[in-house]
# Entry
Amino acid sequence: MPDLEVTQKVMALLEPGVWRSGEALAAQLGVSRVSVWKAVQKLRAQGYPLESGAGGYRFEVDAPLGIEGVTYLGSVGSTMDQARNLARGDAPEFSAVLSERQSAGRGRRGRVWQSPAGSGLYLSLVLRPDVPLSSLGLLPLLVGACLQRAIDAQTGFAGVLKWSNDLLAPDGRKLAGVLLESEIEDGAAKFVVLGIGINVRVQDFPLDLNAAALEEFTPNVNRKALLENILTELRVQYERFLESPSSALELWRSQNGTLGRAVRVLLPDSSSWDGTAVEVASDGGLQVQTLSGELKTVFAGDVSLRHT
# Structure
């Protein structure tokens, strides 16, 4: 049996939290135990979270595999690129790509998203929303609110929801974020790809990322259960959004930690100014009252919460 086929079959036989001995795997596949061992090493090198012990081999207990509609990979450049390829191939809504590791993960404004193997949830999701283009800007707000609700429901830790879609730790470090990319054709969205990145396990974050992990605040987060909760919450709220896009605003307003706060706005041209976040407009823009009393609406740029 070719090595690639052995590797694929070993992966298909392994489950989260269930030990399978090398001897049993070898007998079932009709190969040597050495071939099984080599297959496990290849899977690990690809980023899959496999454990070995006296009982043999298994996926980590919270490995997010076996979820309907989710393509589970060990390592890719970017899940956004993979999901876009699915969308262009007419994949149905809620088709998703999740990878344990990304070598070229990206966030908003072209930033790199730190995504080492087994430490978080890195997911890109295909949607085909039949709504006006002016409503697409509400989707990141919707997804950010869904992340907060799902995390809170599972762990009891809500974090702080910052405009437009970041979930922050109490000390202001970033726990999760959302990226939206779309393909427009004839004045309508042909599809939308939503990227979701959540830092679950503690890692050595570069200082300039100002990042945090969920397990700093709530231990033993089960990544598979969390992903299932997120997808369930997204399906419910997305259906409401299709019926009434303004529902995304209502949801975000009910959970946000931005309105009424002092903020600093950093624009794409690197200029910045301070003010108070007062409202979110119907198209998702953040309305900020400057220190001079002028009301400005922010669509692009970074907004940081200030402690006064």
The longest strand covers residues 174-185. The helical segments are 3-13, 22-29, 33-45, 79-88, 139-155, 223-243, 246-255.
